[in-house]
Design brief:
Elements: H1 10-17, E1 25-26, E2 35-40, E3 49-53, E4 62-68, H2 82-90, E5 94-98, H3 114-128, E6 135-145, H4 147-157, E7 177-181, H5 193-197, H6 202-209, H7 217-222, E8 236-239, H8 249-261, E9 266-267
Parallel strand pairs: 1-2, 4-5, 4-6, 6-7, 7-8, 8-9
Antiparallel strand pairs: 2-3, 3-5
Helix pairs in contact: 3-4
């Protein structure tokens, strides 16, 4: 059970994190304001694609949010964030619902860090195409819940891994601000037994990362936002339910502690 107990802002948070609902879906090239897409941002159109919630034109560029879906890095899709895009549109944000390659436990296709590379590429692509969407490239936030929040945590704490594409060279993958909702921010914290009895069992996690925590502890630590906070980590808003039975709340608490020790801005 995933429980978010957030007085007063709880309803807002759930809307922000996505779910059902959505707005007008228009094809790329359609001038109608609404949810448009998909737009391909990489060489793999099956995975590296996003939908954009456009807004009415205005003179000043708008802030943007790049939203990442949850699903344990093995399922889920960008359009799960339709209601998040509508909520953010009401606040004046252009929202990009970004996809990423999902790990296939049966075949081993798309192992880590394919998901991180795609998330980083998505943020850089938004900055590279900021003028096209009337977006301020210096006000691009990342938002995600569960495994989407996990990717957001890494976006804020790691520099770009792959800078080989000349079209994106020089564009940072670090967001200017970040929202991490109930993400597994510290993989060195043991998962509860219920976790391994569910869809993300031990074999799947080990397959994704190339071994268990005992076998490749350096990989699990390097893939943990809490162990990568540095002087360039942007401001974070972190929300995590104390009764979370999937991703222990200690994961987020360790991340927040690392942020405070590094003197970085964080709201928890």
């Amino acid at each position: 059970m995933r429980t978010l107990r957030v007085p007063l802002v709880g309803t807002v948070v759930f809307v922000l994190l996505g779910g059902l609902g959505g707005g007008v879906l228009a094809q790329s090239g359609d001038e109608e304001v609404g949810l448009r897409g998909p737009v391909v941002f990489g060489e793999d159109p099956e995975w590296q694609r996003m939908w954009v919630r456009t807004l009415e034109p205005r003179d000043a560029p708008r802030p943007a949010v790049v939203w990442f879906h949850g699903g344990g890095l093995i399922y889920g899709q960008p359009l799960h964030g339709e209601s998040a895009a509508e909520f953010l549109a009401d606040l004046g944000f252009v929202t990009f619902l970004a996809g990423y390659r999902l790990f296939d436990p049966a075949t081993g296709e798309n192992p880590w860090p394919a998901q991180l590379d795609d998330a980083q590429r998505a943020v850089r692509w938004v900055r590279a195409h900021a003028d096209e969407y009337n977006v301020d490239p210096e006000r691009v936030c990342a938002d995600g819940y569960s495994s989407g929040g996990y990717l957001v945590g890494l976006l804020g704490t790691l520099d770009t891994r792959d800078d080989s594409d000349p079209d994106l060279a020089g564009f940072s993958s670090r967001p200017d601000c970040a929202f991490m909702g109930a993400g597994d921010a510290d993989l060195t914290v043991p998962y509860p037994e219920e976790y391994y009895q569910g869809v993300l069992n031990a074999d799947i996690k080990a397959g994704l990362l190339g071994g268990t925590l005992d076998e490749v502890p350096d990989v699990w630590e390097a893939a943990s936002p809490a162990h990568n906070v540095d002087a360039d980590t942007p401001p974070f808003l972190v929300i995590h339910g104390a009764d979370d039975e999937t991703f222990p709340v200690e994961m987020s608490r360790n991340f927040v502690e690392a942020m405070r020790e590094a003197g970085r801005e964080v709201e928890y």
